[in-house]
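I have been asked to look over a protein record a colleague put together. This is what I was given:
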Amino acid sequence: MHEFIQAGYPAAQLTRLNRVRKFQQVVFLSCVLSALGKHLEKQYLLQRPANCKLSTLKDPTEKPPRKDLVLWREALRQIVPECGIPDRLGDHLHKGYRIWE
């Protein structure tokens, strides 16, 4: 959410983005990035199937409408462009929450 705030999204859109963030089981920016920490994982642009768990955390049940998912995709692409973020994220500080396949 910090990244969306830094990007200048207004409060109403932040509420919508947070709804999708919880549904998609995203905690940190690193959750939506590839293992190299530079590029966006495409699975986070799509609505997570209900039976698919992407995190070890138990998130509240959310059912974001399609318009919120569209905003989510646009916001993620703004934060993580096609060419990737300028600098890779640093080393892990602790074990993450994301489930890697």
Summary: The mean pLDDT is 84. Residues 55 and 97 are 5 Å apart (CA to CA). Helices lie at 2-6, 11-23, 66-79.
